[in-house]
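Shipment paperwork, digital attachment
Item: protein structure file
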Amino acid sequence: MAIPKHRLPEWVQDWLDVIVPGSQILGILLVAYLLQRLLRRLVRKAAVRYQLPGQLVVPINGLIRWTIMASALLLSLERLGVSAAVLWTAFTGFATVGAVAFFAAWSVLSNLFCALLIFTARPFRIGDHVEILDTAEKPGAKGRVVDVNLLYTTLEEFNTPPGSAWIQIPNALIFQRVLRRWSGEPPAPSAVTAAEPEAQSVAPKATVSPVP
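Attachment content:
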């Protein structure tokens, strides 16, 4: 039940216009702090469950923090008497700039999103032997997965000395191509198949002698 203003002490009445919005702002900041901690805890549990790398968890926590801070700031300004029209104009302006930046950095953001999919959907793991194909009939980039970061998946090429050659494939490209994966070592090319071109090049051509 609300207490009538005239029943409050005079010093409280003088400071009422400061106490009320101040307490509301403190409440907004407290809720924002608790919400941020709750979401960070959920992200930490998801990172442990899906074995997400720290370099992927850090930007997610940063996005959560800045989103909550911006929302808390807008609500605090509204409690201080800033008009809703001004806040809406500022919000639409920031949203427009964010949309332009989003489309400008689409390739980078798509790689980040695909990195998250790789760590959650698990199409392959570190140490697997994979081949990235344009189609199932054509050969493509082939190697052992040695690293997956926010932008690239690194493959160690087959048929080369260990640690001598790597292929870096954008994460987004992996979800646009056919993926072939071996549970163990990939099958070696057949010796007969490999020797056929050489045999054909060395074998003499057959000649037909004229019949006398």
